Structure to design on (97 residues):
């Protein structure tokens, strides 16, 4: 019995995806937690600093690279904020195996 299918779906989807590393996984887990707190609803509004803290990432460059790659690889739909006064938005895509 799966207690949290989105987590299992993500890990099954990345099992054979050599592009995904530990930093991608860490960011995705932080995003998944925000999605869960949001009641499992898309989109999730995120603050970069909070996702970085939850993902244990210190370098902004690393965060930007990995979140953009998660978007490029199809795991999320990332809508960066146009300015600092608005939160970015992320849609977690259903992971296909």
């Amino acid at each position: 019995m799966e207690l949290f299918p989105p987590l299992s779906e993500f890990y099954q989807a990345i099992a054979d995806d050599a592009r995904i590393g530990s930093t991608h996984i860490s960011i995705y887990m932080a995003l998944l937690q925000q999605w869960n707190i949001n009641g499992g609803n898309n989109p999730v509004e995120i603050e970069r600093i909070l996702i970085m803290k939850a993902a244990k990432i210190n370098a902004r460059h690393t965060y930007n690279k990995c979140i953009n790659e998660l978007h490029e690889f199809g795991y999320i739909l990332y809508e960066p904020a146009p300015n600092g006064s608005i939160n970015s938005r992320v849609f977690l895509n259903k992971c296909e195996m």
Q: What stands out?
A: The mean pLDDT is 91. The longest strand covers residues 88-92. Helices lie at 5-14, 22-37, 48-55, 60-72. The domain at 5-91 is CATH 1.10.10 (Arc Repressor Mutant, subunit A).
